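Lab notebook, bench 4. The sequencing result for the construct came back, and we need a structural model before the next group meeting so we can plan mutations. Quick request posted to the team channel:

Model the 3D structure of this chain.
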Amino acid sequence: MMENNIEYKKRVLDTKSASFCGAKWYNATIWLGSGQTTSCHHPLPHQIDLEEIKTNPSAIHNTKQKKLEREMMQEGERPKGCEYCWKAEDIGSHVVSDRVYKSKIYTEDALDTAYNTPCQQNVNLQTLEISFDRTCNFACSYCNPAFSTTWVKDIKTNGPYQNLESDGRNHFTHPHDASQKYGYQEYNPYVEAFWKWWESDLHKTLQELRVTGGEPLMSADMWKLLDWFKDNHGRSNTRLAINSNLCPKPALMDRLIEASHHIDNFEVYTSAEAMWGQADYIRDGMDFKQWRDNMFRLIKEGNLTGLHVMCTVNALCLDSLDGLIDWMVHLKKQHGKDFPNFTLNILRFPSFQSCVVLPQHIKNIAINKLRYQIKIYADYLHEHEVDQMNRLIEYLESVDSPHSGADTLDKLQRDFKNFYVQYDTRRNKNFMNTFSEEMVEWYGQL
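Done. Here's the predicted structure in token form:
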């Protein structure tokens, strides 16, 4: 009988320590535009030491902070930045947190090696998500200027968003110039360190390199990397993946499909969590029809080993998340479980866009839909998809705060209303004409 994720956690992770996660050693997200890194997309990023990377390019990953957190995990202590997983696990022992998924992708021998490696020793990455810069044609409602030049344009044109009391990180008040420390044509020491590490060791040891943004298809370094794989075919066994919003100019989509045929193992990750007008509202810049058509094109014309949809589960998407899941299962029935597979990533920041701001009767509508879909689609869903649907149900039923230190519910709800009133004006949108009767009635009462 196949071991499930709970059994795996008990046998592989818990026998090391109560907080061990392989991602702290073998995975990284690195933003080369700002010179920041983190071990996965949940902890807050921290700064890379410019002096260290002059002699050790791998210090774009092997930072002093990560080494300290590795030591904590070896001793069973919980690094504060990994709160996303601790919050999930504290719901109950039956809940599978992301550290299980982020460890399970590595061999048990590799996890044993990580656990027994002195915490100050440099380690080679096996999976890496990297952003060359923040150029992006989208300005999603839950994003901010640190990750999107279109968001920067909003802030510079219209000024800061007003009266957001719970925006403790000041996401929406300034253009986040520190996120792009070097101009797009300037020498960037962080980018230089990546290319040095890539050429020397990384292309030999890395299992997966995933490029994110901004929108990678708008980055010159992304195309440089695609050309490297074409010109060095057979030199690297690294699986290449790209995070794309899949709404680029048609010529770039054509170029991506052509490039995919020069890579042996190529995967595309994209994002959506709602359908049609609601998707376009949440992810400003999106054309859902174009996105859907490009999904079809990738499946039929591209040379892909996997196609993934990352759903950022926020307060606005529950209206039509079930419709998106229906549509993805329809594709699975035609093309197999991996075309596409999906993840449900519960949004915590900005906290006023979290699902916790919603009244329980709206959450219950989504809960009932999810339960029904788990039942009728069991044969077409991966274990992790079922686990994450169940995790979302548990979250909607029992979690009342998006993260530790979050503001009170009434303050979050006020900010929710304040933000979307301004968002509608700036982006030429209309909340009241976009969402369900239940959502509109609740929104109107805020």
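The chain has two domains: 5-128, 134-183+207-445.
Will bring this to the meeting.
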